[in-house]
Design brief:
2 strands; about 5% strand; single chain; two-stranded antiparallel sheet; mainly alpha
Length: about 350
């Protein structure tokens, strides 16, 4: 009898993983589907996310007219640290886990990456690619700026006497300033804002399509509030970078609108393809997984390198202990708030 019990126990242990995995099905649950009610939630989501994203990206842009909120002020550093924490948490807590879930889903009939951490690999390549784009773009724009800044022959008494300097001509005086002082920071901030928007837009489209294609009100309802706050805080981070880049009003408006409209447009696309879209299909899972992994790499790199490291190593913050404390607290609050939102998203 004991041998039989032991044998049954061993068979149960061997069979247990199969029983657990057997509960994970890729079939859609019809009892949660309510197309009409889901459509109402989707329309509400479009309006709510559009308003939230627009307000978030506009706050820093409008705030630049307020002296206390202008770049270089203490409050600006604190707000930007909070927004950077939000973006960092978005990459680690929201986007990267979704990528892992998609690329390791049991719904993939043949998963060629089952024994390889492909999600982390794509995120790593994305971060390296962002570094390369960041560096090469900054180098290109810097060389272009220096070339255009060279004086016309005869406008200066001496041209190129100092190889590492760029001459600046004014009616009042003749002089020169170093290349580092002529637009290098501005060029850097413009590259940062454009690359950051690319990373945000990539995962915003995926989020929008997934929400728009879903026909389960129970899935959509909690996402409306979570994604609204998500877009609001991300908009603040992007808006802060746009302000520092000092784009003209037209360019800043286009970037702000592009960010604000991305997720609502994604939801609209999802609604349009909801009849044929299968979120559990291999194509959808692989596409979402790769896009999310790439977006996570971009967001994590941008948050750590271009937003946090640049500001936290800034001489203004290094010489101000109170500002350091406030910025660190703000960073933790931003990351914490976005991490809590993951519970509903």
């Amino acid at each position: 009898m004991d041998k039989r019990l032991r044998l049954l126990f061993i068979l149960f242990i061997i069979r247990l993983p199969t029983l657990v995995l057997g509960e994970c099905t890729c079939d859609e649950e019809d009892e949660d589907r309510d197309r009409d009610k889901a459509l109402r939630y989707k329309i509400a989501a479009i309006a709510s996310i559009l308003v939230g994203g627009t307000i978030g990206v506009c706050i820093p842009i409008i705030g630049k007219k307020i002296p206390a909120l202008q770049p270089g002020k203490n409050v600006f550093f604190v707000i930007k640290a909070f927004a950077a924490g939000v973006i960092l948490a978005t990459g680690f807590i929201h986007v990267l886990p979704d990528a892992f879930e998609s690329l390791t889903s049991p719904c993939l009939s043949e998963n060629p990456w089952a024994n390889f951490p492909f999600t982390g690999f794509v995120a790593m390549l994305s971060a390296i690619g962002t570094l390369m784009v960041d560096s090469l773009s900054t180098s290109y724009y810097t060389r272009s700026h220096l070339k255009n800044a060279l004086p016309v022959l005869g406008d200066e008494e001496k041209v190129g006497e100092h190889e590492g300097q760029v001459y600046a001509h004014t009616h009042a005086t003749h002089g020169h300033t170093s290349a580092d002082e002529v637009g290098s920071d501005l060029i850097r901030h413009r590259v940062i804002s454009q690359v950051l928007e690319l990373g945000i837009v990539a995962h915003s489209v995926i989020i929008g399509i997934s929400l728009g294609a879903s026909e389960s009100p129970q899935t959509i309802r909690p996402l409306v509030a979570a994604l609204t706050f998500h877009q609001f805080f991300e908009g603040m981070g992007l808006g802060s970078c746009i302000v520092q880049a000092k784009f003209k009003s037209r360019a800043a408006t286009i970037m702000g609108l592009f960010f604000s409209l991305t997720t609502p447009i994604g939801i609209g696309i999802g609604i349009g393809i909801s009849q044929v879209y299968d979120e559990n299909s291999s194509t959808a899972l692989i596409t979402e997984g790769i896009f999310n992994a790439a977006s996570a790499g971009i967001l994590i790199y941008m948050a750590l390198v271009d937003l946090l490291a640049a500001d936290f190593m800034n001489p203004k913050m290094q010489t101000n202990k109170m500002l350091q404390v406030m910025a660190n607290i703000s960073l933790l609050l931003g990351a914490g708030c976005m991490s809590l939102i993951a519970k509903w998203a």
